[in-house]
Amino acid sequence: MASASAPVSPVRVRFCPSPTGNPHVGLVRTALFNWAFARHHGGTLVFRIEDTDTARDSEESYEQLLDAMRWLGLDWDEGPAAFDSASGAGGGPHAPYRQSQRMDIYADVAAKLLAGGYAYRCYCTAEELEERREAARAAGRASGYDGQCRTVGPERAAAYEAEGRPSIVRFRMPDEPITFTDLVRGELTFTPENVPDFGIVRANGAPLYTLVNPVDDALMEITHVLRGEDLLSSTPRQIALYQALTELGVAKGVPAFGHLPYVMGEGNKKLSKRDPQSSLNLYRERGFLPEGLLNYLSLLGWSLAADRDVFSMDEMVAAFDVTAVNANPARFDLKKAESINADHIRRLDPAAFVEACAPWLQAPHANWAPESFDRAAWEAIAPHAQTRLTVLSDITANVDFLFLDEPVEDEASWQKAMKEGSEALLRTARAKLADAEWTADALKEAVVAAGEEHGLKLGKAQAPVRVAVTGRTVGLPLFESLEVLGRDRTLARVDAALAKLSAV
């Protein structure tokens, strides 16, 4: 049995996470590819929440999902809430978009499947199932469900019911192979022995994922299902269910499927939600730009061009082709992610950069008093900082010398810079700085001149000055930093360093 062709237009895709735990980068990559596909084709992105697991789902996780999508800028067209939280409650023609609010729909579809003979009640107990599975394994046969209850007639069913034996609802899989063309992996075939009948409703009447996900896709007229490779094994079951739903008039056809490659972490293991580096919050808290993170995640299976890694989301949308996604696993490389984010920071408009850094120049990130922050000084130094940051949180250590009463005490930097002869050099530099015009060029000339008097090149001569003024051996361009810090504060810090050196 082959899957039907999905309609080419209008494109309708869905992103349907479960509200459990914190959002992770693999989930974001799936959302991104669905979003880019929808936007490329001028289609619709449905944001649906699969919250039927009452033991694990939480309202906090639900709110985090909404917040994450908004922060990333992955706008949706239909969903449980508006993309712009100020614009209303969201919704759409297929509301509600939370599965927990659609239980009556699933019960109705399950009843239709039973009445049409596409599903049946299974009365096998857990013990009976395990005993038969063990026997099948011992005989070298497939150990999936063996269809025992497929032929249970009305009298036998009534007897089971009279015993009080519970039953689940199973979907009746077809007896021929299922073949479909995966948008990423090409043509795939699953044989009947590898796809046995499966449960769609629990004994307590609660619908299972195997039912609710395809039913929602059918009723919401989803044309393309782009999801992780880990769900590939369930696809033939869903295709068979779509065929049944189409024959029942519930669905209009079978969507096209595309299974996205695994994202691998350290040791070439699949990156899981439990891996620290998988948490979206980690990258957000470090100061990744949404554009930088999304740009990198798009490279986990896709590329704009062989010789180009950095691009905007508009450029991605214009070029995105899901059939060009590489089926091979993609390895998450933090250093490359940081490098791409740094490129996006440098691409920011200067005014946008100033505002983007604002959260890291305030409590709890900043280690100076709020009243010590000088907006004019920050704006003056910002252009020199923009080219140096990997993530926005780097800004705090780069500019703290401007807003602290005294430079940070970094003993390693002090020991590295304050070698024999540093006191004499600092005294000479202090005198020349005091007489210099307070511009970056003139300050550089003053330190160069001081170095020459002591037989030192600029690199050696400026190190003691930098540590005296900023506390660190590395940082923003020194002379521009001194210009912004000002004459009085610069000379006072050099004097403090000289006092410390002379006390040794």
What Rg is obtained from the alpha carbons, in whole angstroms? 32 Å
- The residue-averaged pLDDT reads 94
**Helical run tally:** 20
* Main sheet: strand order: 3-4-7
Q: Could you tell me the number of beta strands? A: 11
The gross shape turns out to be: elongated
| First and last CA, distance | 86 Å
Structural class by sheet pairing and helices: mainly alpha
Strand content: 5-15%
Unreliable stretches? 1-7
Biggest pleated sheet:
3 strands, antiparallel
Helix content: 40-55%
Notes on the protein architecture:
- This protein is 45% helix and 9% strand.
- The chain has 20 helices and eleven strands.
- The protein has helices at 25-40, 59-72, 103-115, 126-138, 154-163, 209-219, 235-247, 280-286, 290-298, 313-319, 334-347, 350-356, 375-386, 395-403, 411-417, 422-435, 440-453, 458-470, 478-485, 487-502, and strands spanning 12-15, 44-47, 119-122, 168-171, 178-182, 186-190, 198-201, 224-228, 256-260, 263-264, 330-331.
- Strands 3-4-7 form a three-stranded antiparallel sheet. Strands 1-2 form a two-stranded parallel ribbon. Strands 5-6 form a two-stranded antiparallel ribbon.
- The relative contact order is 0.09.
